[in-house]
């Protein structure tokens, strides 16, 4: 998987040369995230994501399947509604602290790729590749698969009101949604941002319906669930760590805007502003939504339901209960749309840096989108759909994500020491990354005792990336390099693509 530049590729130059008329047309398109350079020699990412788009991406990605799935997981491992609410708030605070640390990293290293770019700048190519490796196999496709399965479960719930929907139609519907969103992302990025904006509004409306129904229920004098809110609380550190994992899964996505920094207008201002607007909004929404859940539904009802919002709607909305699964499905649809858009850029950047096959860094010359990267992500996500236990997937994702987020924040401290004079448009208090490191260490260490299988498998997948790195990148095997070039040539012709030729340090 060697990096192939336009100057040394085996593909004839005429495959990539864009005629002047085509190049001018491409430059005039307003619905792309890439642009033809002034010399007509290649394409590069175009800055067209504004502040409101950035806020919509963060809120749209975060508020997806998590708030409709994780309440059960948090309650299951915390033991009481009082402790669950505390964990939800602490997860929001911790995510805000992490987001502020990433704001410093994102404005100091204004490159797309998020953690991949930051770990590479701080610790070198091998740790960066290991992050890309687990993101490829666990983080991104698993998170997208969970969101897609949640969408399918909620949309099909009205057809099986008294039991769970069969797994086969759920998986098929989830796969169909992934394919539809991949096509949208391949064809037109303006469609992506419009879908994100529309469905972000839809999910906020759905949550406001839940909150409104909960307020009405409490105002009617139904406060029996709050008489002993901390009764049955678990105190075992390992269980608390797992409760945090379920809560943090609902907040995952706060760093997705860092994946597309190169496409963000004025990132030095808009990246931190988008974070500071989005995170408090999400935390407040999650807090009041959970209060509504716990006010209406008993602990047993929540723990026995795989579709908490639907159970809530059945109890409170009567004839209009069908609105809730539809609204939740729309929410997860918009969340997955934003996740596919942002995460495909991670693999695009990794391929551009030579850590994945060069074909993944190709850009279609008509739509000006990274079509091979999007299709590659689509295939891996569909493969992961055939997992029956969603909460095992959440534990896989949360452990690995906490570990590499810890490494990224440790990189912030290391870069403070290693590069003290580097310009930092945003400089957070030293206490914030230290607090974040301590909490992440707690989560990583104590989860090993409660979920040794998931932690062990996740660790093995991380370590398996070391021989892959040395065989394919550090000292590549010749036949793999030849295969990469052959795939690159085929993809460039089949998808009408050319390599990104913008120069990066």
Would you give an account of this structure?
It is a single chain. This protein is mostly helical and 505 residues long. The chain is 70% helix and 2% strand. It contains 19 helices and 4 strands. The chain has helices at 13-16, 20-28, 51-62, 66-78, 81-108, 115-123, 125-156, 167-187, 189-219, 237-251, 267-296, 299-303, 308-316, 323-352, 371-384, 390-418, 431-450, 452-474, 478-494, and strands at 34-36, 43-45, 362-364, 497-499. Helix 7 (125-156) packs across helix 8, helix 7 runs antiparallel to helix 14 and helix 9 (189-219) runs antiparallel to helix 14. The radius of gyration is 23 Å and the shape is globular.
Structural class: mainly alpha
Q: In this structure, how is the largest beta sheet organized?
A: 2 strands, antiparallel
Count helical runs. 19
What would the average pLDDT be, to the nearest integer?
Answer: 79
Give the helices and strands as they follow along the chain: HHEEHHHHHHHHHHHHEHHHHHE
The percentage helix is 55-70%
Strand order of the largest sheet: 1-2
Distance between the termini: 20 Å
Approximately what portion of the residues adopt beta-strand conformation?
under 5%
| Number of DSSP E strands | 4
Q: Could you name the ranges where pLDDT drops below 50 across 5 or more consecutive residues? A: 1-42
Tell me the radius of gyration. Answer: 23 Å
So what's the overall shape? globular
């Amino acid at each position: 998987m060697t990096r192939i530049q336009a100057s040394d590729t085996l593909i004839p130059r005429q495959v990539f040369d864009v005629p002047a008329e085509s190049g001018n047309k491409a430059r005039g398109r307003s619905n792309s995230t890439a642009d033809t350079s002034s010399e007509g020699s290649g394409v590069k990412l175009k800055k067209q994501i504004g502040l409101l788009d950035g806020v919509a991406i963060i809120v749209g990605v975060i508020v997806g399947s998590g708030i409709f799935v994780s309440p059960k997981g948090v309650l299951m491992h915390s033991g009481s509604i009082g402790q669950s609410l505390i964990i939800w708030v602490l997860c929001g605070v911790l995510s805000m602290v992490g987001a502020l640390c990433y704001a410093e990293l994102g404005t100091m290293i204004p490159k797309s790729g998020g953690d991949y770019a930051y770990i590479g700048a701080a610790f070198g190519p091998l740790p960066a590749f290991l992050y890309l490796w687990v993101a490829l196999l666990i983080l991104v496709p698993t998170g997208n698969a969970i969101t897609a399965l949640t969408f399918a479960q909620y949309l099909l719930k009205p057809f099986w009101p008294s039991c769970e929907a069969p797994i086969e139609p759920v998986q098929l519907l989830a796969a169909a949604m992934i394919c539809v969103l991949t096509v949208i992302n391949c064809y037109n990025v303006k469609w992506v941002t419009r879908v994100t904006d529309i469905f972000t509004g839809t999910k906020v409306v759905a949550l406001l319906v839940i909150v409104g129904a909960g307020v009405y229920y409490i105002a009617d004098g139904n406060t029996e669930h709050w008489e002993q809110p901390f009764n049955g609380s678990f105190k075992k550190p390992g269980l608390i760590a797992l409760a945090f994992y379920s809560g943090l899964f609902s907040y995952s996505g706060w760093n997705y805007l860092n994946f597309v920094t190169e496409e963000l207008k004025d990132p030095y201002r808009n990246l931190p502003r988008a974070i500071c607007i989005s995170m408090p909004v999400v935390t407040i929404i999650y807090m009041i939504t959970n209060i509504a859940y716990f006010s209406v539904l008993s602990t047993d009802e929540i723990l026995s339901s795989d579709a908490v919002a639907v159970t809530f709607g059945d109890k409170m909305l009567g004839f209009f209960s069908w609105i809730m699964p539809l609204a939740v499905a729309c929410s997860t649809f918009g969340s997955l749309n934003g996740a596919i858009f942002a995460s495909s850029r991670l693999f695009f950047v990794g391929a551009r840096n030579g850590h994945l096959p060069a074909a993944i860094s190709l850009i279609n010359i008509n739509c000006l989108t990274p079509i091979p990267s999007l299709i590659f992500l689509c295939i891996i996500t569909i493969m992961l759909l055939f997992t029956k236990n969603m909460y095992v997937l959440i534990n896989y994702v949360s452990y690995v994500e906490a570990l590499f987020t810890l490494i990224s924040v440790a990189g912030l401290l290391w870069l403070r020491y290693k590069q003290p004079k580097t310009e930092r448009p945003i400089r957070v208090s030293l206490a914030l990354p230290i607090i974040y490191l301590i909490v992440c260490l707690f989560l990583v260490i104590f989860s090993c005792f409660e979920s040794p299988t998931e932690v062990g498998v996740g660790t093995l997948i991380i370590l398996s990336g070391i021989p892959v790195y040395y065989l394919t990148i550090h000292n590549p095997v010749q036949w793999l390099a030849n295969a990469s070039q052959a795939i690159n040539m085929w993809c460039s012709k089949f998808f009408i693509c050319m390599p990104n030729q913008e120069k990066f340090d």
